[in-house]
Amino acid sequence: MAEQGSGDSGGDGAGRALPPHSPSGVVLQTVEMHTGGEPLRIIPRLEAAEQAAAAGLSLLSLRREVAARQDHVRRALMHEPRGHAGMYGAVVVRGAAAAEGAHLAALFLHCAGYSAMCGHAVMALGRFALDYGLVPAPTRPETAVLLRCPCGPVTAFVPWDGRRSGNPVRFHSVPAFAAATDLAIDVPGHGKVMVDIGYGGTFYAFLSAEQLGLDVCSSKTRDLVSAASAVTEAVKKQFKLHHPESEDLAFLYGTILTDGKDAFSEEPTTNICVFADEQVDRSPTGSGVTARIALQYHKGLIQLGQTRTFRSSTTGSLFTGKAEKETKFGNYNAVIVEVSGEAFYTGTATFTVEEEDPLKHGFFFK
To answer: Distance (Å, rounded) from C-alpha 233 to C-alpha 144?
Structure first.
């Protein structure tokens, strides 16, 4: 690891700090984490976002504002050379945007844009909020961390020993519901398949990989990604989504292929989530688990309080989920779902952006 020059070296470099040292360059500092293998690059503070929030913008409006005026930050940190095709991020917003009893608000970033909800990020942000002092009076052995997400308020429950946060972290979702079940969709190259559509803070299509002639545990990831993406595009064209509170949230985020084991079992059920622009979740997907639990409950396959284990086909990491209680969400019969997993720190980073760099805002290669 290189160190700053001390000024006592010989030659022309005496007294010079090692690069980068451009006075006009943008500096972006991040905290790096992962939950179940899915990365989370946390931006602890984005001044432009907090200024916009202080002007009274709602979190959904702030999401649009950041996308319109600060998208270079997302591209710089999610895309190569600083990120990669599977990178995921969160902008922490404090102050006005985190009012109404919340400890912080968050905007979720990925390689193609912005999400409304992210369960793996919520679990990581729960630990981050405690360790970085965003919760004024944490309690032992567990602290409730209140977060505002674009889809609504979410509560994370984080172990706390008086000095640092721990695992596992669990969270209670926004109301989750079945938007459609046994929906016939014609998928080019695959024919007619039956899909379920569930909402867990964002909408996903669900079906067994077997319907597409694949095995979620043994087929090549490339084949699973292509098939899931074809399903996503077909559903977008053939089914109109509706969200009870905001049409900004009425979009299909992706498709989750499963092993078809939806009935309650003590054994894990395996899935792979393909979202946004063919991005693959390395974790079992927190909002996906939420939506899948809601679907299983709606179909009578599980009961309140029954815990299911979900395995990622990419990393083998595990989340658990259970339906906690029934509720109403608009005209939908919904449930509050609890999801649990483990989030870990991987480091911190300081990124620079030199103005003369033609690729300063990143490039997307997949």
So the answer is: 38
Backbone angles phi, psi at 344, to 5 degrees: -135, 150
Neighbours of 357 (CB within 10 A): 12
Phi–psi pair at 113, nearest 5 degrees: 160, -130
**Nearest by Cα to 311 from 252, 255, 259:** 259
User: 111 - beta bridge partners?
Assistant: none
Q: Note the pLDDT of residue 310.
A: 98
Q: How many CB atoms lie within 10 A of CB 176?
A: 29
* H or E segment and range at residue 121: helix 119-131
Q: How far is CA 104 from CA 94, 129, 324, in A?
A: 5, 8, 24
Say if residue 1's pLDDT is above 50: no
Q: To which H or E segment does residue 147 belong?
A: strand 142-149
For residues 271 and 310, the answer to whether their CB atoms sit within 8 Å is yes
Residues with catalytic annotation? 118
For the cut 90, the answer to whether the pLDDT of residue 4 exceeds it is: no
pLDDT digits (tens, 9 = 90+) for 284-334: 999 999 999 999 999 999 999 999 999 999 999 999 999 999 999 999 999
Amino acid identity of 92? V
- Strand-pairing partners, residue 301, are none
Q: Please answer whether residues 81 and 75 qualify as being in contact, where contact means their C-beta atoms are separated by less than 8 angstroms.
A: no
At 9 the pLDDT is: 43
- What is d(CA 34, CA 147) in angstroms, rounded to the nearest whole number? 18
- Bridge-based pairing state of the strands 114-115 and 104-110: antiparallel
d(CA 243, CA 113): 20
Cβ atoms 314, 325 nearer than 8 A: no
* Pairwise CA distance, residues 311 & 270, whole Å: 5
This prediction has a pTM of: 0.93
**Cα dist. 54→25, 62, 100, 132, 175 in Å?**
26, 10, 14, 22, 28
Separation between Cα atoms, residue 156 and residue 342, nearest integer Å? 12
Give the residue among 200, 307, 325, 300 at the shortest CA–CA distance from 256: 200
